[in-house]
Amino acid sequence: MQDISLHLLDIIENSVRAQAKNIKIRVIRNVQKNRLRIIVEDDGIGMDSHTLEMAQNPFYTSKQEREKKVGLGIPLFKQNAELSNGCFKMASEPGFGTVLTVDFELDNIDRMPLGNLKDTLLGAIVGHAEVDFSINLNAKERGVEQSFHFDTAAIKEELGDIPLTYPDVIEYIDQSLQEGIQNTNMEEV
Fold first, then answer.
1. In terms of pLDDT, which residue wins out, 185 or 62?
2. Does the reported pTM lie above 0.85?
């Protein structure tokens, strides 16, 4: 994968396949600590300790429709974090969902770019309108902290019977995400 946002998309798809109804995504950029942290938390079916360990193995997948049993998304995400002097942690429990935390050294030459975060998030929200997404972007630089929060459950409540896939709603979500990314300087990452 060429950038972090594509890894994020893969993790979101894993959460949806795990029957998550709520997915929390946090992107935290802290210049003083020289860290970029991605946290994805879902309320899907979760994994037992054996499955959790196997999920980090590139030769394991839980996808039944594939002929070849290979699942590279999580192992590649872990490898890319470790190559940039970061770390990767996954915690899960059956019936309680999964939490994935990935850290990257912000100025490491081997850190892949964040990529097109807006399109990744927009595609996930519109493509999985049945899931409630809570998105938090936080940036801390030179003592100034900026944050952005976006919650599809609140939007769904406000819209009533109008779906998130309605063109005007998609445009609103697109603009909101773009403003949040700009206000937290995530497009520079």
1. 185
2. yes
Distance in angstroms (rounded) separating the CA atoms of residues 162 and 154: 13
Q: Is domain 4-188 in CATH 3.30.2010, yes or no?
A: no
27 with 136: CB under 8 angstroms? Answer: yes
Could you give the CA distance from residue 159 to residue 155 in angstroms, rounded to a whole number?
6
pLDDT tens-place string over residues 130-141: 999 999 999 998
The residue extents of the domains of the chain are: 4-188
Cβ atoms of 133 and 125 within 8 Å: the answer is yes
Cβ contacts of 17 within 8 Å, gap of 6 or more: 44, 62, 63
What pLDDT was estimated at residue 1? 72
Q: How big is the chain by its Cα radius of gyration, in Å?
A: 17
Q: Which residues pair with 100 in a beta bridge?
A: 40, 90
